[in-house]
Design brief:
Layout: H1 11-15, E1 19-21, E2 27-29, E3 40-41, H2 42-51, E4 58-62, H3 63-83, E5 93-95, H4 102-112, E6 118-121, H5 124-130, E7 140-143, H6 149-160, E8 164-169, H7 172-185, E9 191-194, H8 219-231, E10 238-242, H9 252-271, E11 278-280, H10 304-322, E12 328-330, H11 335-338, E13 342-352, H12 368-375, H13 385-404, H14 410-432, H15 439-446, E14 450-454, H16 458-461, H17 463-467, E15 474-476, E16 486-491, E17 500-501, E18 504-506, E19 509-511, E20 514-516, E21 526-529, H18 536-539, E22 550-556, E23 562-568, H19 573-579, H20 584-600, H21 606-621
Parallel strand pairs: 4-22, 5-6, 6-7, 7-8, 8-9, 9-10, 10-11, 11-12, 14-16
Antiparallel strand pairs: 1-2, 2-3, 4-13, 13-14, 13-21, 15-21, 16-17, 16-20, 18-19, 22-23
Bound molecules: pyridoxal-5'-phosphate (PLP).
């Protein structure tokens, strides 16, 4: 059946740059830097990985996408700088916390070298990572976060090695340590200062801005700090002003307002004698997860290019008005750099249905309510959907009450439930063909949607979906040329009722159920969750002891082919056990003792003993997810 051409999942809207639907109905991976190349068939990638023993669930990283995003951001800023005749330069940094994986950081450093793209550091381990990367000569290392003596000393020493390390003072307390260590080491620091903007930014992270934000110094603290720096003859070392505008900022007007406010601080601090040359605006550049191009929680009303030109223009006008030179503009775009480069791919293990197409025969001794329930199908029609739903729900409720009072038995109850499922199935198929259903009917039908059970852990692989209601675009990666005839929510493999996805991006906006195809026996049905490269790998946890998934990095080839450039095996059971302080060896020894005991009591034969020991060992060395 290759007659279905709708883009139900809105792939063209949210993913046109990277994805396409191939003629065979599979998702194709487009190379945004070489749009004429034949797209890579995602199902073929999965089959190829399967042949190599790399099973789903798998996080697939596409280096071509990462390179493209790094280039796109830097080029967009360079273009804005040129077009607006801005006199300063742009020096972006990637915040390591957004995806610390070695493969990702190395690729970003590599792709960003020609643009002097640097790194933002928020902790000692991140500083250690940053100091081992090969970057452009003028790339910045911006150290945010709380800093102890160790952190400050290493950052100061790195200046001697030629790194452009800037210590951003987050609080007045840090300055005392910086003065102490820079004096002791005889190294003049390069300092930044984190200010607190009063403008509140919209979106999910509005609390990271405004008066109550936990970061940045108040105006009073700024004045004290400037005075202390002056007293120590260090005011000229204060070269960067930092303000993190927010994350996933939906509205470009908020960006402009916040940048304008940051410029006012910048101008005032320069007036105080600070040697400020760099204006760091933090993160905030969003991703259009839904493709709606509007100012809403999962979308944005601007492009990367607009974001860059709006910033450059706002800074230019503010500086010109104040008679100040144009500073070097720094941003710390994490999400926008990495989100699109990774996708989570998992197989559906089974489906739970809440309707049936088979009509149960009425039997002579059936309770009349079962008969009444069956009668509902005689008047199902487009104009009577609500009535049919009401009636069916009423009859089923009565049957359940009778069961509760002991007036009907389990078999009658089961027949009643079966009849109800049949009626619901009939209502659904009429509703499917009906336009303009009321919200109440839509909601009632959603309550009867299938549950497709996916081989993944929401808590490990999509934590933001659980924690903050993040909506990631998602679609089956095959059979897209076939009309999906069912609607489902997706549940994960953990034993947690929160482990489900019930908000989906579709062609016309966000829906509570996902159109899906009926499963075919013996055929894999893979789902793709897209734009998961930012924060998800890092924030994931071991709920139910489902560990890290397999991770594979590919590079798109010119002729529909691809190269597998890196592979990390997911956690084994032994590994996750050791993360929670078990010694797999001790567990095995204990198990062996139990088995030996059973053998010595004659309850187990020697060959059963061997089978048990090897089953235990095999399990311990295996993948934590469902294996075929
Ligand atoms: N910089 C700082 C200081 C941050 O706290 C964050 C994220 O919260 C970022 C940059 C990255 O923000 P985004 O991913 O929105 O670009």
């Amino acid at each position: 059946m290759a007659d279905f051409e709708h883009d139900l999942y809105g792939i063209r809207r949210w993913g046109d740059e990277y994805f396409t639907i191939l003629e065979n109905g599979n998702v194709g991976l487009k190379n945004p830097s070489a749009p004429d190349n034949r797209p890579v068939d995602l199902v073929r990638v999965l089959q190829d990985l399967g042949d190599r023993g790399i099973a789903a669930p798998v996080v697939l990283r596409v280096t071509s996408y990462l390179q493209h995003q790094v280039r796109r951001l830097n080029t967009a800023f360079a273009d804005a700088v040129a077009t607006l005749e801005y006199q300063g330069v742009y020096r972006g940094v990637f915040p390591i916390k957004v995806n610390q994986q070695a493969e990702v950081i190395e690729r970003i450093a590599e792709a960003g070298a020609e643009f002097n793209f640097g790194l933002e550091i928020g902790s000692k381990p991140e500083l250690v990572i940053a100091l081992s990367q090969k970057m452009g000569e003028n790339a910045l290392l911006i150290c945010n976060g709380s800093k102890d003596s160790e952190f400050i000393r290493l950052a100061l020493m790195s200046l001697k090695l030629g790194f452009n390390t800037i210590l951003v003072l987050e609080s007045p307390r840090e300055l005392d340590l910086v003065i102490e260590h820079s004096t002791a080491l005889g190294i003049r620091p390069q300092l930044g200062i984190r200010i607190k903007l009063t403008n509140r930014i919209g979106g999910k992270w509005s609390e990271s801005s405004g008066d109550r934000s936990s970061f940045g110094m108040t105006t009073e603290q700024l004045i004290d700090l400037v005075d202390t720096l002056r007293a120590h003859d260090l005011l000229d070392t204060l070269i960067l002003q930092h303000a993190h505008l927010g994350s996933q900022i939906p509205d470009i007007i908020d960006v402009r307002k916040a940048v304008g406010e940051a410029c006012r601080f910048f101008v005032e601090l320069r007036g105080e004698g600070a040697g400020l040359t760099h204006l760091d605006l933090g993160g905030g550049l969003g991703i259009d997860y839904t493709g709606e191009q509007k100012s809403s929680r999962n979308s944005i009303n601007y492009t990367v290019e607009e974001y860059c030109s709006n910033i450059v223009e706002t800074v230019k006008y503010a500086m010109e008005e104040a008679g100040e030179p144009h500073p070097c503009i720094v941003t710390e775009s994490g999400r926008a750099t990495v989100a699109s480069s990774s996708m989570l791919l998992f197989n559906i293990l089974e489906a739970s249905h809440f309707d049936t197409a088979e009509r149960p025969e009425i039997e002579a001794d059936d309770h009349h309510l079962i008969r009444d329930l069956g009668e509902v199908t005689s008047y199902i029609g487009a104009g009577r959907i609500q009535e049919c739903l009401n009636d069916a729900t009423y009859y089923r409720g009565e049957l359940r009450a009778l069961f509760g009072f002991g007036r009907i038995g389990l078999r009658q109850m089961a027949r009643g439930e079966r009849m109800y499922q049949y009626v619901v199935g009939r209502i659904k198929s009429v509703a499917h063909e009906t336009e303009g259903l009321s919200e109440e009917i839509e909601t009632a039908l959603e309550d009867h949607a299938d549950i497709y059970h996916g081989n993944f852990s929401l808590f490990q692989s999509l934590p933001d979906s659980w924690a903050i209601g993040q909506v990631h675009p998602m679609a089956p990666v095959q059979r897209l040329n076939e009309r999906p005839t069912r609607r489902a929510i997706i549940s994960d493999i953990t034993c947690d009722s929160d482990g489900k996805i019930d908000r989906f991006v579709l062609e016309n906006g966000i829906a509570n159920t996902l159109p899906v195809h009926p499963l075919i026996d013996g055929e894999d049905y893979f789902m793709g969750v897209f734009f998961v490269g930012a924060y998800q790998e890092t924030l994931g946890d071991l709920h139910n002891l489902f560990g890290d998934t397999n991770v594979v990095t590919i590079e798109l080839g010119p002729d529909g082919g691809f190269n597998l450039v890196h592979e990390i095996e997911g956690d084994t059971i032994a590994e996750v056990l050791s993360y929670v302080e078990y010694s797999p060896q001790r567990l095995f020894d204990n198990f062996r003792k139990v088995v030996e005991g059973a053998v010595s009591r004659g309850e187990l034969s020697i060959s059963e003993r061997r089978a048990m020991i090897s089953a235990y060992k095999e399990s311990t060395g295996g993948y934590t997810y469902y294996e075929k």
